[in-house]
Write a structure and sequence with these properties.
The structure is a single chain. The chain is an alpha/beta fold and about 525 residues long. The strands form four sheets. A nine-stranded mixed beta sheet has the order 16-15-14-13-7-12-11-8-17, with helices on both faces. The structure holds 6-O-phosphono-beta-D-glucopyranose.
Length: about 525
């Protein structure tokens, strides 16, 4: 891809003293700036409630860069360049619900524009908890900052979670649209910034051999796994109000599913691609609350040792309710009602404290119509060919198929054809946030989530949540307390997740093979 460069801009980061700003945003901006993808005149106005002078915040920022900028790129961090970079940062202390602080912000912005940013382009990055999204955007508009007085553009990047359910996501969209046009709003999902997620496009639409078999005539089912080995650590307060379905499925996993399953777009522009993603999500079956048990499984990790490290049981984690029913694991059998995928289930599973860190899509093809070759398996295990798209780690694509074992007999054995990013292209470069921030600065919303996409994803997820709420109410009426199935850390989740596939005569695979 040719190097892109952006016009002069002022980036205002709300939540600048938080973890996301320090671990991801500042390092991403630093790299973009250091490789000349951002103008050298770039100015950053960091805004948060914590008291800092400009100098004290710059020191903090420098520390974060030295600590985290190397996470994203191979090699040592150029500390001299980091020092030069932080000089462009100014800091304003302020509350998010204080109109006077936003008037002061408007004055600050006007001064910075005059000195460094004649074009008057403004990017507001909301790296804050979601409960202040509304006050911030309202206050921006009231302070006259929803559009630029110097004729430049004004854009918002909003972090997840975008809503808590369908109603809240809809309310947030309505609220934003009062003061901002949709093309000013960039809802970020960092999975869309991952190279290997974007490669799903290239694999499907840049090659001739996959598309003809990418449908119900050849595909038996699809599995999408996002497994993490860590527990929730210190995020108990956030996580207990969220859970795996809201935290991972509604956004990252439904996006990966949409890219895997959508119809070819009429062009590679934002509208064409997002239209097809919305169509796909609209085809996802909505589960009736009474049926939730048939289609979705949830669980919580218990305590225990994994690889010499001790994992605290979810229910004993600080800030988690001791009788919490928040799921740390979910598996969902998704049905897609369209011509391409009718009758082809998409099994989604994600969880914390699982056996390995792994994100992959397995396209499992139909079995041969008649098995003429002895592969030593029972008929139930006749081979499916599997195309595995490994999103992370060990990024690549593997095709699993059967080959003849050398020797006098005609016996088959499972083998793999493997493409590895590392081997093909050398060290991985670029980080999701860099790509996405650059796209937002260039006004390209292809890899951001549109308002209708977010709502239709929430609609299907909210139906599941309603089903779970119903189960809890019923348990209460019976005088019981609902307890979620527990799974040991370092395993692949509760047994019920295996049952979900076994009922359909299938099993979970990692990298194409039985785990
Ligand atoms: C975040 C979730 O959006 O994605 C986290 O809030 C999760 O709970 C993270 O750990 C996973 O991202 P990645 O890029 O490490 O797969």
């Amino acid at each position: 891809m040719p190097r892109k460069s952006t016009p002069s801009v002022l980036i205002v980061i709300f939540g600048a003293s938080g973890d996301l700003a320090k671990r991801k945003l500042l390092p991403a901006l630093f790299h973009l700036w250091n490789e000349d993808s951002l103008p050298k005149s770039l100015r950053i106005l960091a805004y948060a409630r914590t008291q800092f002078s400009d100098a004290a915040y710059r020191d903090e920022a420098l520390k974060s860069l030295i600590e985290h900028a190397g996470d994203m790129h191979e090699g040592d961090v150029d500390q001299e360049a980091c020092r030069r970079f932080v000089k462009q940062i100014e800091y304003q202390t302020g509350a998010y619900d204080d109109p006077a602080a936003f008037d002061a912000l408007a004055e600050n912005i006007a001064t910075i524009d005059k000195a460094h940013n004649e074009a008057g382009n403004h990017l507001f990055y909301l790296a804050t908890p979601p409960n202040v999204f509304m006050p911030i955007t309202e206050n921006l508009a009231n302070a006259g900052l929803a559009s630029s007085s110097s004729g430049g553009w004004t854009r918002l990047i909003i972090e997840k979670p975008f809503g808590h359910d369908l109603a809240s996501a809809h309310a947030l969209n309505q609220h934003l649209h009062k003061n901002f046009a949709e093309d000013q709003v960039f809802r970020i999902d960092h999975y869309l910034g991952k190279e290997t997620v974007q490669n799903i496009f290239v694999l499907r639409f840049g090659n001739g051999i996959f598309e003809p078999i990418w449908n119900r005539n050849y595909v038996d089912h699809v599995q999408i796994t996002v497994a993490e080995t860590l527990g929730i650590g210190e995020r108990g307060g956030y996580y207990d109000r969220s859970g795996a379905l809201r935290d991972m499925v509604q956004n990252h996993m439904m996006q990966v599913m949409a890219l895997t399953a959508m119809e070819p777009p009429v062009g590679m522009d934002a509208k064409s691609i997002r239209d097809q993603k919305v169509n796909l999500l609209r085809s996802v079956q909505r589960i009736a609350p009474a049926d939730v048990e048939r289609f979705a499984v949830r669980g919580q990790y218990s305590g225990g040792g994994v690889d010499g490290r001790e994992v605290t049981a979810y229910l004993k984690t600080p800030e988690v309710e001791p009788d919490s029913t928040t799921e740390t694991f979910v598996a969902w059998r998704v049905g897609i009602d369209n011509w391409r995928w009718q009758g082809v289930p998409f099994y989604l599973r994600t969880g914390k404290a699982l056996a390995s860190k792994l994100t992959e899509v397995n396209i499992v093809f139909r079995k041969p119509p008649l098995m003429l070759v002895d592969n030593g398996d029972s008929p139930m295990q006749m081979p499916n060919n599997v195309l595995s798209l490994r999103i992370q780690p060990d990024e690549g694509i593997t095709l699993t198929f059967d080959a003849k074992k050398p020797g006098p007999l005609v016996e088959a054995e499972r083998v793999q054809m493997d493409f590895s990013y590392l081997k093909a292209f050398g060290a991985q470069r670029g980080e999701a946030y860099e790509r996405l921030i650059l796209d937002a600065l260039l006004g390209d919303s292809t890899l951001f989530i549109r308002h209708d996409e977010v709502e239709v994803a929430w609609d299907r997820v909210t139906a599941l949540l309603d089903g779970w709420e119903k189960q809890e109410k019923e348990a209460k009426t019976r005088g019981d307390t609902l307890r979620l199935p527990q799974y040991r850390p370092g395993t692949w989740g509760p047994a019920a997740a295996d049952e979900l596939l076994k009922r359909d005569g299938r099993y979970w695979r990692n990298n194409g093979v039985k785990r």
